[in-house]
Amino acid sequence: MEIGVCVLLAFLLHQVAHVGGQGDGGHEGCVPGFQVKKYQVMYRGPFQKGQRLLQVEFDDCAGNEDVTFGVSDPGFHVDGDLNLVPLRDLPHSEPVLFIRGLSARADDLAQVDIIGTRGRSAETLGDIVGQKLPYRSKRSLLVPNISISENERGPFPKFIGQTHLISTGEPREQIFRMTGPGADQDPKGLFTIDMNSGAVSVSRSVDREATDSYQLEVSTTDYSGNLIEGPQVFRINVIDQNDNRPIFKEPRYTGEVLEGSPTGTTVMTMTAFDADDPNTDNAVLRYNIVKQSPDKPSPNMFYIDAERGDIVTVIAPTLLDRETLPTTTYELEIMAKDMAGSEVGLTGTTTATITITDKNDHAPEFTHPLFEAHVYEGSTGVVVNLTVDDRDDPATAAWRAMYSIISGDPTQSFEIQTNPDNNEGMLSVVKPLNYEASEFLSLLIKVENEDPLVPDVGYGPSSTATVHVRVEDINEGPVFFPDPLIVTRMENIPVGSFVASLNATDPDILEKQSIRYAVLQDPAGWLSVNPVRATVNTSASLDRESPYVYDNKYTAVFIATDNGTPPATGTGTLIIHLEDYNDNAPYVLPSVARVCEDTYDVTVAVVGGWDKDLPPNAAPFKIELGTQPDLDKTWNVTRVNSTHSQIRLLRSLKKDNYQLPLLITDSGVPPLSNNTEVKVQVCICNKNRMHCSSAHSHRARFLVPLAPLLLTLLCL
User: Exposed, middle or buried, 627 (CB in 10 Å: 0-12/13-18/19+)?
Assistant: First the structure.
């Protein structure tokens, strides 16, 4: 209770000083605070939760809108009807309760005596003021909160409030000091305090939108600077004035509404900002449409909700027709006014641009029911441009056209693409037409939009058109069949032998034309063609081993020319697959071998057979010594595998060059043989060097041992 007494003493002293200073504001004769300062309640037993004990009388002379109450006993509170009620069941209470009422205009205390309750003896306001508090002198510094209006005019400095020092002890000389933002901190010097009287003044006008309140501290000291009382915190609140106009974030806003939209459709929402106090009418905005441009077909096509700023349609859906309105874009001048739209309110304006957007309520229509086109047979490309009208918004999916061929094109020789620039349909031939097959075609074309039509609109007869295509005849070149023509022939067949018979036909079946043939490409010059009968014969021997033959195939190109006006030509390809004939004798590699002097019974070389022909006209090869006498006394040839044999020296030879005759035979029918020689150089070997007899002799290393090579060949 001692702490509560200290706090309540401060409240009481504040009230004593504050009541004396309530001279400004309020209605005439009204004194802000409790109209009755002291109340009594008879104690007849425990207090029940919610029980109304009494009703206090409090008036801050401004309607009590922001009044708050505090009770010294936390078990009680003052409700919205100013009734003192318990917050819970209480068996008893303190004999004295204190109620504090606080608002922007009043700060006051009232005393409630509980008669008949148990507890310590009652303490009145006078008792609390007169008692000695621990660790404190008998004085108190009261600093009420202060409210000032922004944008006040001078002269300055201007008095705005008073601090009080209440003392029950001996008078003592002291001075007032004030610290905090606006005093000794930035903005420095905005507020000052009279050091002797404690009067608070403002030195210049303030702006609530810059700072809406200032929290300061007041204390008293002696002339030596020793603290006597305080510091006490108080607040200077800045009262708002309507000095800011509503501001729209953008100078121009854009919105869209679909044509035919129902009345009441929301188009867009306008929002403005007012920097004034949002808890006052200074920042309460109302919206209004000042002007509509153009004002046809009605000057009131749109309405704006005054409070929310929603722009909605007023015009009937049938009149909101993009294709019949004088324009598709309307401009609205929008005004926002504060003070809830009263005459004294400040205003801000902006422009809202509303575009009437298109919906697909008009089907595309061909400008003509019939289109005609002429095309040469055998050609491709665009043959006619199909034109349509569409009243919907250009460059939208409700305007863009899609064309399709309904009938008349069983071979799918045509296609239609849309020109994105003008919406025309470009009818093209993608597969060449044949005059002899059909001279005339009739196509049925349909046009639609990318977007579907609205439910009450459909495609009519004008959305289809007929295209007559007339095919023009041209002299077409002969066509070879088959192309290419593939035949198989043996190489080396006699000159003049028959190779193939060409077949070319003239597509112009309605005209009787003759065809003549000629050789166009014959890289090796082996072929000739009869110009009338189209028979191809050899004019030279066919050689499979020729460099003009690739993968056993020889290719020639022939040309056929008709006698039309002008003459037309066609080309065909002849591929001859050449079969191999055993016309190439085999040969031996390598043709040179080396061996050291004074060695014998060693392998001199492993030689292999080679043949330009193909199996079975090549390997296996038979390699043997020549027919010269006594060769077998010095040399020996034995087979390694189907393609290779080894040469062995049976006795030592002196340094010299020896020509060893060999005979190699292939497996063709009939077989071909070839007498060849291998040059064997017998050399002096020392210090890992070989010295051989040769006009172009040179020093070489010993031969690599042949055993690994022989083993590899045997494995093969």
Answer: exposed
Q: What is the pLDDT of residues 610-661, one digit of tens each?
A: 888 788 888 898 888 888 888 888 898 888 898 898 998 888 888 888 899 9
Residues forming a β-bridge with 574: 485, 556
Token pair for 710: 């022989």
Angstrom distance (rounded) from CA 164 to CA 109: 17
Task: Burial-class residue 386 by CB neighbours within 10 Å (0-12, 13-18, 19+).
Answer: buried
465, 445 Cβ separation under 8 angstroms: yes
Name residues whose C-beta falls within 8 Å of residue 586's C-beta, 6 or more positions apart in sequence: 609, 610, 611, 618, 621, 664, 665, 666, 672, 673, 674
Look up residue 630 and give its two tokens: 């006594």
Confidence (pTM): 0.46
Task: List strands edge to edge, sheet with 76-78.
Answer: 54-55, 83-86, 76-78
Radius of gyration of the chain from Cα atoms? 60
Q: Which residues of 420-434 are buried (b: 16+ CB within 10 A; e: fewer)?
A: eeebbbbbbbeeebb
Residues of the chain by 3-state class (helix, strand, coil), percent to 5: 5, 45, 50
pLDDT in tens, 508-530: 777 778 899 999 999 999 999 99
Say whether 26 sits in a helix, a strand or coil: coil
